[in-house]
Structure formats: C-alpha cells, structure tokens
Amino acid sequence: KTDEVNKRQLSAVLSVIKDWDSIVIAYEPVWAIGTGKVATPEQAEETQAAIRAYVKTAVSADVAENLRIQYGGSVTPDNCKDLIAKPNIDGFLVGGASLKPSFMDIISTVGPSKLQTLWPSYKEKMEKEGCNEAAIAAFKYN
After folding, report:
1. Is 91 strand, coil or helix?
2. Which of 10, 83, 85, 131 could form a disulfide with 126 if both were Cys (CB 3.0 to 4.6 A apart)?
C-alpha cells in the first residue's frame, strides 16, 4: 500500500515539474510522523528505491538518478549512520531532533559520508549561480 500511495501522490505533480534540479523529495512513513518510531534502514531503502524506480518510469532515468530523496522518519544519532549508508537515501528531513544538541552528532556522522560524493556537483552549481569563492568555501563541509 505504501508504494501505491507514493505513486498516487507523485503522479499528481510529476507532469508540472519543469526544473528537476530544484526538486527534493522527502519521504516519511505515516506511522512514523510524530511517534518517534523509525523504519529500519532496509524498510526505508525499499520505499525510497521504489520512489526512484517510479520516477525513472514516469519521467526518465536521468531524472531518477539525479533526484535527491530524503528520509524523514525520526532520524537520530543512533540510526543515521545505517540509514545514510543506503544508496537511495540521499539525506534527511530532520524534524524535532534538529532542536536538540545531539543534532550536531547527526551532522557529524552523516556530513562526510554523502557530501564528499555530492560536493563536486554542488560546487559547480554554486559557481554557475555566481556565488563568490568565499561563499563556496564557507559552504563546503570540511
């Protein structure tokens, strides 16, 4: 049923999106919203892979491959490393945990793992948009 709901929701907007570079999809299981419950890394990966596969079929392989899909279900310092290791989880939509001091533990754990891979394309985009060197240097995760 999860994939059915996701396809229905996505199908309502896919045809009107013109600039896919500006799009980020965030997925959170309905049963996780506000509960503190989290999907296993395998459950989250399965759902996010299905979202990517649907976008590949409905839009294009190129869009699906470059699309950022974030997981948003009760990410914590304890589970973020296993979640971010999954190939279809590109980042997190962090809610209440972002208000806690331990939020920096999530950033410290996750930042280097994905950003090292993503940085070249981010840098290129920032340069195209006219950001100066100081702004680009400030943005880079060291």
Report:
1. strand
2. 131
Measured from the Cβ of residue 60, the count of other Cβ atoms closer than 10 Å reads 12
Is pTM beyond 0.70 here?
yes
Q: Tell me the CB-side half-sphere exposure of residue 8, using CA atoms within 13 A.
A: 5
Provide the terminal-to-terminal Cα distance of the chain, rounded to the nearest Å. Answer: 41
Six-digit token pair at 16? 């009107």
The count of other CB atoms within 10 Å of the CB of residue 53 is: 13
- Extended beta strands in 45-125, E state: 68-71, 91-92
Question: What pLDDT, in 10s, does the model give residues 18-61?
Answer: 999 889 999 988 887 777 777 899 999 999 999 999 999 999 99
Burial string for 82-107 (b: 16+ CB within 10 Å, else e) reads ebbebebbbbbebeebeeeeebeebb
The answer, yes or no, to whether residue 73 has pLDDT greater than 50, is yes
